Amino acid sequence: MSMSSSSTRITTSSSDYNMSPTPQTSQQTSAGSKKKKAKSDVAQQIDHVQDEIRSLHSDARSRHDQKQERFLVKLDAKTEHHRDTRKYEYLRSTREHEASLATTNHQREQEKQDAEICLRETDIRVHEAHWLVLEKEAENLRLKMKYHQMTQGGEAV
């Protein structure tokens, strides 16, 4: 807060004038000094009020700036939180989707392996059945040969 130069009093003494003091000039000087002093006091009060107004404006501007800064910090925090929440939700849904795909792929692989096992078991049963057929045919042929030997052996005897 600056004080103006009007705070210093301007006083004139009668020795500053080249004239000799007369009662009328002395009254004028005294009235002029009072007027100057009153003007100086009013100017000083005006300066003081203006300084207070500037200070109030500065304080209000400072509070507004602080409030704006707090708002921006809070907005940044909310924005970051929202961004982090969206990122978390995206990552969570991505992991769920990947887990679902892994489960589906595992299930398909399991079904494929089960089908392969079933096919192998069927192949084994087919081969066993074919072996039994071949064994029965071999037995049938042996019996036919024995019968044929018996029938030919009986005619020759």
Structure description:
The chain is mainly α and 157 residues long. Helices cover 85% and strands 0% of the residues. The protein is built from one helix and no strands. The chain has one helix at 23-156. It starts with 22 loop residues before the first helix and ends with a helix. The relative contact order is 0.04.
Task: List the topology elements.
Blueprint: H1 23-156
Average pLDDT over all residues: 85
Unreliable stretches: 1-19
Largest sheet descriptor: none
Helix content: over 70%
| Helix/strand structural class | mainly alpha
Head-to-tail CA distance between termini: 155 Å
Q: Whole-number radius of gyration?
A: 60 Å
The sequence of SSEs as H and E is H
Quaternary assembly: single chain
Overall shape: rod-shaped
Q: Please give the count of helices.
A: 1
Proportion in β-strands: under 5%
- Total strands: the figure is 0
Which key phrases capture this entry?
single chain; 157 residues; mainly alpha; 1 helix; 85% helix; rod-shaped
How would you sum up this structure in a few lines?
By secondary structure, the chain is mainly α. The protein has one helix at 23-156.
